[in-house]
Amino acid sequence: MAKEGRRHLDGTVPQAKAPGQEAEVDFADVWVDLAGERVKCVLFTLRMSYSCKAVHRVYATASQQAFLEGHVAAFEALSVPARRIRYDNLRPAARQVCFGRERRESTGWVNFRSWFAVTPFYCVPGEEGAHEKGGVEQGGGRFRRTHLVPPPQVATLAELNEMLAEIDLLEDDRHSR
Asked: Which listed residue, 32, 76, 77, 107, has the most CB atoms within 10 A of its CB?
């Protein structure tokens, strides 16, 4: 057992986040019945760290265009986080993952984040950084299980994203216990 021979304390480390300061972003796979055909798409999620308010949008692929459009939708609904946004190794932002938190960013992403004054915080790759943006991963998974299972039946992704915008507004009244 992992605990044998070691001193181990059970507990948690509380997170102190200030309102409007930080957010986390992630993509996750999702299935959609689109115009009568089941297709695999991606769910973009931007989640504010303090309030846990999130914006969700579905795209055909995790392209840079989808990545940037997801940010714009989130910024319109929530505003741009004042301090930073946490990212892992999303290809639309990082053309190359170097060591630790260092990334070689794509030109389109550098231009976009400069325009919106976004400060990226890149998580450490692998197990070492797995805990660094758990809020968006847990919240995105809960959202997907709650609202996208079974797969929604829509004619277009635009129709689905209108539905998701309404759901995001209703989620404002949800409280975690």
From this structure: 32
